[in-house]
Specification:
Strand content: under 5%
Number of domains: 1
Shape: elongated
Mean pLDDT: 95
Radius of gyration: 22 Å
Order of helices and strands: HHH
Length: 77
């Protein structure tokens, strides 16, 4: 697996928590940062995609269907 280095700035409290966890478990802080990203990246990407699509819909850039038309299309009228 190829890896790249990423530098991040953390609030002091978060950095202290990460350091404490690292010291308690003997694992490097990078392990926990990588774990957090791997476990939550799909959610983060999904949330930002939804946000972008919502903004596009509000700007009228996406095709939409009215509630009444959707009900009719589904045979719920």
């Amino acid at each position: 697996m190829s890896t790249d280095v990423v530098s991040i700035r953390l609030p002091d409290q978060l950095k202290q928590r990460l350091t404490a966890l690292s010291q308690t478990t003997g694992r490097p802080a990078a392990y926990y940062i990588r774990e957090a990203l791997e476990q939550h990246m799909d959610y983060i990407e999904y949330a930002y995609t939804l946000q972008a699509e919502t903004e596009a819909a509000r700007r009228g850039e996406l095709a939409t269907i009215s509630h009444a038309d959707l009900k009719a299309e589904l045979g719920l009228t």
